[in-house]
Amino acid sequence: MNKDRINSILKNMSLEDKARQLTQINADFVKSDVKADATGTSDDLKLTHGDIYGAGSVLNFGGADDALAVRQKYISQSQNKIPLVMMQDVIHGYRTIYPIPLAVGCSFDLQLAEDCAYIAAVEAKYNGVDVTFSPMVDLARDARWGRVMESTGEDHYLNGEFGKAFIRGYHRGGIGCCVKHFAGYGAAEAGRDYNTTDISERSLKEYYLYAYRECLKEQPELVMTSFNLLNGVPVNADSRLLLDILRGEMGFDGVVVSDYGAVNEMIMHGYAADKRECARTAANNEIDLEMMSSTYVHNLPGLVKSGEVSEEKINKMTERMLALKEKLGLFDNPLNATDEQKAAEADGCAAHRGVARRAAEKSCVLLKNNGVLPLNTSVNAAYIGPFAEEKSILGAWACAGRADEAVSIAEGVEKLLCRKPVVVKGCGRGLFDSDDSGFDGAVKAAAGADVIVACIGEYAHFSGESASRADIRVPGVQIKLLKRLKELNKPLVSVVFGGRPLVLTDVEKLSDAVLYVWQPGSEGGSAIANLIYGRANPSGKLVASFPRSVGQCPVYYNHFRTGRPKGQDTLEGTVYTSGYIDELNAPLYPFGYGLSYSRFEYSGFGLSSGVMRRGDKITARVTVENKSGTDGEEVVQLYICDKFASAVRPVKELKAFKKIYIPAGGKVLAEFEITEDTLAFYTANGSYEAESGDFDIMAGGDSVNVLTERLKLI
Ligand code: BGC
Questions:
Q1: Radius of gyration of the chain (CA)
Q2: Of 17, 109, 142, 259, which one is the catalytic site residue?
Q3: CA nearest 459: which of 385, 541, 354?
Q4: Among 128, 148, 235, 132, which Cα is nearest to 191's?
Q5: Amino acid 344: pLDDT
Q6: 259 flagged as catalytic
Q7: pLDDT at position 529, please?
Q8: DSSP assignment of 534-602, as one string?
Q9: Considering 46, 410, 519, 605, which has the largest number of Cβ atoms within 10 A of its Cβ?
Q10: Helix %, strand %, coil % for the chain, to 5?
């Protein structure tokens, strides 16, 4: 870090320069000299030429040549020649799109997640991206929320592990990254995007902030604040969260960026009366970079002059922005060597497509199989449904990914079989489709086949930002089509696309096998074909519980007990117990669940000692045997439950996992170490420690079917 350079630049900056340096605008402002924003945020962003060519950062641009043109134009027009830092949402790939993060989580494969982020970073870097707005580590327990697709699910420990893996990949690929959205955004009430969150102190500390704390260990360059109101205060106004916790307790000294227009949204929240108050609040909370609103450029100089924001604070914030540029090498290379040739070579190259395919194979989850899968290649299968030929399978936030470059199921199957399969669409995939005029043709084609593969689900853009749903069943007339297909009495396989856990209660009943493929990305069709025909063996496990009906939401595995417990799998005993009179408590498919073509058996679970003294290390061992003739991978999961505690503990908490390859007929011994830290939590008096007493230690292939041993901490 060249501190002298930063100091000498800072010395020559006026207050106006600094306010601009702390502002991030859309690249269009630079490209087309627009003076006002047309992107629909709450702020009209009236900017002068000086504001635009003094802005510290731009976001959202289109590739190597575009980035270079923006940088060149900016530098030629800018007065102080401080290079721009260019940021982009590279969420699950740049041009080569791998599965959505929720799917990557289901791989339970951290190295794979790192490799995915690495290929994204390599492509992004050649295309002019300095920093990606990823990873998103919001804890997401409500399937209605559209942004569950960007998270790695309902477990904070997994979110932390995957967040760190993604950061390692971005850094290895040579770009900076931004952990988001700090904090609590995933708890949006009723799953409605941008909605209010209300999170207890305990829950925030233990669950919602956990993954951020973990991610900071890998030194991400930025943290993004969230849009939401948290316990009555907009996050961007929450000094306890932003100063005491993030800067203080967590020790983060990188750049904090607001979310898009969110500083200005404090007015809409009913917190700040005007833009001046927004700027004062955000700056005093050390939001270093204001994304897509202009309260800083218009108000910070005045606020410093009036003494409402100290100049020292503005200097500290500007210094962080300059330090970011220094770290990314931008002062020495202000045009940042974007290289069209290299971009063209890297974008979608065979090696990257290979990683994307492997990721898709490992993240699809086999939810049901009565033996119909895998199909023999000689079987005459008809591929029916709106997703059989669909190429829009990249998912939301697909960056520079192109649907025309994605492999559809039909294309993947054709490549594998060396012949065109029977394919009929049958119906549309719209939310409100009612047109069933294609059913007869679909049924006729299916009648001539030995096996029907129904390709159904949720379209790529029915999840993501601002795409929350109140009805999370497979949309439109697709279930009606499935019912018609079922009447043919032939083996029926459902391949289901989704950007969230969908309610699959009908699909489960109607199908002999269900393969959940999420939004699988550029190589989706190849991966699905490999899984259907057994060239790859499913190994994905759910990182989010699948509700039976939307009324169960939020449903998640690590819930608390109640004083009036009710069985998970029964409607009996409903009176005066905690349940529903019309629905079970158990989700349709639990966290950690997923089938394989192999059959794994767990046995011999034991602890090196049933008693643990403080400071001891206990080993938990379990034997997992592959009782089938098919090689496979199994995710062995370790859970704990603290039986009685000063602040009660969840029924289960995932503490470790291992994804292990076990050849046909083979056997492995999986070992996990348990220390005091494994058993620790925030106790009633706020300390983080393990309390003496009894613990259940559980091991298994999902969160329900576990072997249990008792451990006593003394
Ligand atoms: C999203 C962020 C994203 C930003 C920039 C916002 O609307 O909430 O996640 O990084 O836009 O595109």
A1: 26
A2: 259
A3: 385
A4: 148
A5: 79
A6: yes
A7: 99
A8: TSS------SS-B-SSGGG-S--SSPPP-SS---TT-STT-TTSSS-SSS-SS-SB-TT--B-SS-EEE
A9: 519
A10: 35, 20, 45
* H/E segment holding residue 125: helix 110-126
Q: Looking at the DSSP assignment, which residues form a beta bridge with residue 493?
A: 453, 513
pLDDT of residue 36: 52
Q: Please identify every stretch of the chain with a pLDDT value under 50, giving residue numbers as ranges.
A: 38, 40
Could you tell me which of 409, 429, 550 has the C-alpha nearest to residue 498? 429
Pocket mutation for ligand 1, best pick of 41, 150, 225, 259 (most atoms within 8 Å of C-beta): 259
pTM flag (> 0.85) = yes
Whole-number Å distance, alpha carbon 387 to ligand 1 midpoint, is: 28
Tokens matching residue 505: 């209660």
Residue 46: the pLDDT is 87
pLDDT number for residue 494: 99
Cβ 591 vs Cβ 543: under 8 Å = yes
The finding on whether 89 has its CB within 6 A of some atom of ligand 1 is yes
Residue 260 near ligand 1, beta carbon < 6 Å = yes
Question: Does residue 465's CB lie within 6 angstroms of at least one atom of ligand 1?
Answer: yes
Q: Is 147 in the pocket of ligand 1 (CB under 6 A)?
A: no
- Compute φ and ψ for 197, nearest 5 degrees: -125, 145
**Best of 89, 179, 263 to mutate for ligand 1, by most ligand atoms within 8 A of CB?**
89
Give the pLDDT confidence score for residue 353 in this predicted structure: 97
- Contacts (Cβ under 8 Å, ≥6 apart) of 489: none
Ligand 1 centre to CA of 213 (Å) is 21
Q: What is the pLDDT of residues 516-534, one digit of tens each?
A: 999 999 999 999 999 999 9
